[in-house]
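Reviewer has doubts. Consider these tokens.
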Amino acid sequence: MRQTTLRSTLTFSAAAAIAALLPSTVQAQSGKWVATISQVATAGGSADITIEPRGDKYSRVKVSFRNVKRDMRIAWDIVNGQCRDQGAPIAPQATFTQVQTMTDGSGTATANVPKLEPGKMYYIRVFDPQTIPTDNNVWGCANIAEKQ
């Protein structure tokens, strides 16, 4: 009987040691991302960004402006990295439909982009459509956070 108890204790101890070495359970990622630009220079107002998965390869981005100057065009893109990293856009500029603001200071655009990868960093830039965007000439920038 003592030998059985000892063998059970050793088996349990070995299993506990192996379990301790394994990574903890990772929660499934939602595939949803969000960001807010609280103040858009030149245009005024702010912008909210939501990103949701569309199948295995794409995400759908919605950018919504509020309280910005009316009847104004605003360009935007999503870039790898964090604000001020001078990262590369995740898709060609033509992918990101320009926003035409309305008389009430609102405006919305959507785009289908390559699916954002969990654990990577991305940011959104808004800028004058007449310029080639750099992190130094944008009207606003916000890091995009993955929703849990």
Observations:
- The CA atoms of residues 80 and 87 lie 5 Å apart.
- The mean pLDDT is 84.
- The longest helix spans residues 2-21.
- Strands lie at 33-37, 46-54, 58-66, 73-80, 99-100, 107-114, 122-127, 140-146.
